[in-house]
Structure formats: C-alpha cells, structure tokens
C-alpha cells in the first residue's frame, strides 16, 4: 500500500500500537458521541476479544481449510483497500463457496443489515442441504441398481 493510499484510510484502520479499538475510534469523536461509544462498544466487542488480532501473524501463509462463504457490504472499505483482494481470498481457501454483496452496508454488515445477513446465511445452508440431498439420492439409486444385479 502506498503512502497516498494509506493517507485516505479511516484512522481506525491503522491503529496506534498503544491504543485499543475503542480509544482509536474515540479519537475521531467528541463529547456525547465518545461516551455513547464507550458505553455501547464493550457489549459487542470488548478489548479482550479484539486482542485476538494481535496474534494474527501465526496464520500467515496458511489456507482456510473449512468451507467459506463471504458476505460483505457494498460500502465497506476492506474490499477496496487492496485491489484483487477478493481473488486473493479465493486463493487462500481450500473450499471457497462464493460471496454475496449486501447493498447499503459497510464493514459491520451484520449490524447494519442483520435480516439480510441471516437471509444470505439461510441461502447458503439451503444450498448445502440440497447438495447433500442430491448425493444421498444418487448413492441410494446406485445401491438399488447394484441390488438388481446381485
């Protein structure tokens, strides 16, 4: 990422080492906003949960080895920070199942459009159930066919 590209990122995307997420975001707020954020954010993302990102380097070079379906908002910055990041995500997965865009939502898509995210998850689960049913039916047909020969 170039210095010019880095300069246009929201300040909370590149957090100072000594600050946590709440304090970094609070730098861009004033008065009542800051207090509201400090009161609300511990419930949905406390510091101990954010600390998990400090060790993210241990996953460098490893592939995601579980099925992955990516749901993201059209207004999120993460996908625009690095052109080609969606293709890189596909390459980083052994079982990439696809992605869905959610209109008028940003990075925290599940907070902005929870109903739409649930709909997407149910679509994905439905696809998995239909695929499983297809293979079960195919296997049962094969077993029935073999019984006719025996």
TrEMBL record:
Family annotation (InterPro entries): AB_hydrolase_fold (IPR029058)
Gene3D superfamilies in UniProt: alpha/beta hydrolase (3.40.50.1820)
Domain of life: Eukaryota
Name of the protein in question: Uncharacterized protein
């Amino acid at each position: 990422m170039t210095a010019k590209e880095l300069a246009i990122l929201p300040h909370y995307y590149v957090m100072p080492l000594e600050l946590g997420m709440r304090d970094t975001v609070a730098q861009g707020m004033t008065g009542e906003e800051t207090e509201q954020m400090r009161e609300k954010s511990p419930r949905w993302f406390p510091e101990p949960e954010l600390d998990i990102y400090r060790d993210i380097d241990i996953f460098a070079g490893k592939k995601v080895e579980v099925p992955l379906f990516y749901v993201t908002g059209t207004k999120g910055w993460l996908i625009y920070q690095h052109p080609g990041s969606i293709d890189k995500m596909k390459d980083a997965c052994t079982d990439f199942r696809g992605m869905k865009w959610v209109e008028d939502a940003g990075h925290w898509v599940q907070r902005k459009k929870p109903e739409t995210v649930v709909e997407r998850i149910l679509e994905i689960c439905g696809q998995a159930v239909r695929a499983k049913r297809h293979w079960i039916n195919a296997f049962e047909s094969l077993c029935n066919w073999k019984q006719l020969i025996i």
